[in-house]
Design a protein that fits this description.
About 10% of the residues lie in helices and about 45% in strands. The protein is mostly beta strands.
């Protein structure tokens, strides 16, 4: 069984960018139900299918499988809900941990979010100075929500349960 334990924060400035190199991600959703999401993701020349369970605080079940790139692209183009999520993901080391900083594009331009994966929900973290408000439980910031309520739309401000 795979369990993802993750906390999510807004990023308040771009001081994290110094020396950071990112990878372009494109992802879409086959299912966006609260209890389960099924995601297709392309990262450069690789593709993945990911199944996630409902959130229990910062934890949820997660299973990810590599799939052929051509299959991933076909799923993104033909079966995933549009618009697709486009972002550049950066891996940023800080205080012996690695943060993933997502700089969104397209309909979510302007949104920058940092995530940290943890070993346990109680694990202490040292917050980088560029970290802003924590949004771990705020469903507006779930990638699956950004498909239907993009950051640049008036719908974004509507809180989803």
């Amino acid at each position: 069984m795979g369990v993802e334990i993750e906390r999510k924060f807004l990023v308040k400035d771009n001081s994290w960018m110094q020396g950071a190199k990112g990878k372009l991600y494109c992802q879409g959703y086959l299912s966006r139900e609260k209890e389960r999401t099924v995601r297709v993701r392309r990262v450069e020349d690789e593709a993945f299918l990911t199944i996630k369970g409902g959130s229990d605080g910062p934890s949820r079940l997660e299973y990810e499988y590599a799939i052929p790139l051509a299959d991933g692209q076909e799923l993104l183009d033909n079966l995933c809900q549009q618009p697709l999520i486009e972002k550049v993901r950066y891996r940023v080391p800080y205080a012996e941990m690695v943060w993933e900083v997502d700089e969104f594009r397209g309909a979510n331009t302007g949104l920058v979010v940092a995530e940290i994966e943890l070993i346990s929900p109680e694990q202490e973290i040292l917050r980088p100075p560029w970290l802003g408000e924590e949004v771990t439980g705020d469903s507006r910031y779930y990638n699956s929500s950004l498909v239907v309520r993009p950051y640049t739309s008036k719908l974004f401000t509507q809180h989803t349960p």
